[in-house]
Each structure stands twice: as C-alpha cells, then as structure tokens.
Amino acid sequence: MMTSHWILGPGAIGRLLAHSLSPLAAVTLIGRRALPGQQTLTTPEGERRGQRLNTLTVAQLGADAHEAPDFVHITTKAMAAEAALESIASVIPPSTPLVLWQNGFLAQPRITQSWPGPVLCATTTQGAYLTGDGNVVHAGRGPTFMGDLNNQHDALAEALAQSLSQAGFSATAVNDIRSRLWQKLAVNAAINPLVALHRVRNGELRDPAYAGRVEAVVQEVAAIMQAEGVPSPSGGHDEEAWQALVWQVVQNTANNKASMLQDVEAKRPTERGAILGPLIESAQHHGLPCEVLQTLDAEIAALEASYLNAARH
C-alpha cells in the first residue's frame, strides 16, 4: 500500500522532498499560501523535470476532511516549526509520526517532548534552493540521517529511511541522531553567521580577513561539544578534530551560498536562535566561555533588526 506524506513548509527542502517522494507515495505539500500545482525540479545535472504536486494551504486543510497521513514532515525554518505544527495539530491524530528537518537544536527537543506520537529528526546535506513559486533547484546530493532523540522508534526510522532511499534521497536510520544534530550545529555556527555578516561564499572564509574568526568560533564550540559529550564525526573530542572538520566543510562547499546568507539577502529572519542559541545556552550551563559566539549572535541580531525594522516602517 502506498504511504502518505504531508510536507508542511514548501521551502527548498520541502519541495525537493515532495518531488522525490511523489512517484512512490501520496504526497501533499502544505503552505500558508497557495502554490501552483505544476512544479519544476532542476536536477544537479541541469535537467528540468515538470511534475504536478498536490498542494494545499493550511486553511484548506482545516476546511475539509482528509485521511490521516502516515508521516508529517515539518520542513519550515527552525523558529517556525512549533507554530507550523500547531496550525495543523487539530486535523491529525496525536499518534501521527512527525519528521523534523530543521537546522540547529531548538525545535527538535521541544517538539519531541510535547508531541504524543513518534518524532523523528533528520539531518541532511542535500543542497536545494528556490527560484520562484514553481521551481526548485537541486544543487547537490548528500547523505541524510534520521532517528529519534530517545531511540524509541528504530523500526519507524528504518522504514522511512528505506522509502526515502528508494526516492533517491540516500537516507540512513541511525541511533546517534542527537550527536549528528549537534555536529551539524557546530559546523553551521562556524560558517553561517560569518558568511551572512560579510556577504561572502563559504570558500571565502579561508581568506586571512575571516579565517582567524572562524578558528575563534571553533575553539569555543569544541569545548562546548566536549562538555555535551559529542565527538567530532572523526571520533576526536579535541579542538583540532573540530577545526579540521570545519575547514573540510568550507572546502567542500566553497561555492555555496549558506542559508543564513540567503535569508539576509532576502531580508528574512535568520535561524541564529536555533544555531547560536543552543551553543550559548550550553556554554553558560557548563560555565564555559562563549564571548565569541555571543558577539556573533549580537551582530546577526543587529543586522536582522536593521532590515526587519525598516520593512515595518
């Protein structure tokens, strides 16, 4: 029997997920505003594929009766995840499995604690961006990992990973998703805020003008990771392992325009609270220095305020 997936948040990853799953499953893409049903995916090889997707607004979802989905994927930004879930919670059974695709480590523990049903967390290095209401560009392929924070839903994570892999998403169920989310958070904290502040591509962080600051961020982050018991992906707990990881990612994604930079350019709120917030909170909890992270957070907050306040007047 075909599984059914609701994808809440038709951003880049949401639409990439919808395009990937549509040939194999019943998919509904849900957003706050109406989107054209005819959508186009541009592959990493440059091929354009048109596909009709079932699109609904949250309001339409509440107005009609719908069969409960097998999975609800929440693909909004981190700061919008809880409100997005709240907007549809009344039309899905509380036992419905959720899949969280957010950056950072803000929404995942909160929703895991508050939602009665299973909550899976996913972390992916699939690259995608939107070019208008009808087109998503799949910029690069990468692995996806999923699991739940309390390791209670291994079979469910395994089944979903298999479905996603059949859809070309290269997914693996893991029992250390908490560590993987923290690892991604550590790398994001060293790259995203700095490229957003200086309006540069990832690879430009290697320039002497920025490299010292990257290393200062990683120094604080490495100590926080050690206190949280999170090893680097290479297994090392020392600062050297984290520095090596961050510079490797900078090299691998040299031409990427990080999501926080895309947000700043589009004058949208950034995910600073989900990326820098948990690190600062953890540092304070463990009595560790976090002046570099706090300064970075304040700079991003000021940058955001400069354009968000201007938009209100």
Automatic annotation (TrEMBL):
GO cellular component: cytoplasm
Xref: Pfam families: ApbA (PF02558), ApbA_C (PF08546)
Signal peptide: none
Biological process terms in GO annotation: pantothenate biosynthetic process
Record's keyword annotation contains Acetylation: no
Catalytic activities: (R)-pantoate + NADP(+) = 2-dehydropantoate + NADPH + H(+)
Catalytic activity, EC: 1.1.1.169
Pathway note: Cofactor biosynthesis; (R)-pantothenate biosynthesis; (R)-pantoate from 3-methyl-2-oxobutanoate: step 2/2
Enzyme class name: oxidoreductase
Ketopantoate reductase N-terminal domain boundaries: 7-150
Ranges where the Ketopantoate reductase C-terminal domain occurs: 176-302
GO-annotated molecular function: 2-dehydropantoate 2-reductase activity; NADP binding
Name of the molecule in the record: 2-dehydropantoate 2-reductase
Organism this protein belongs to: Vreelandella arcis
Top-level taxonomy: Bacteria, Pseudomonadati, Pseudomonadota, Gammaproteobacteria, Oceanospirillales
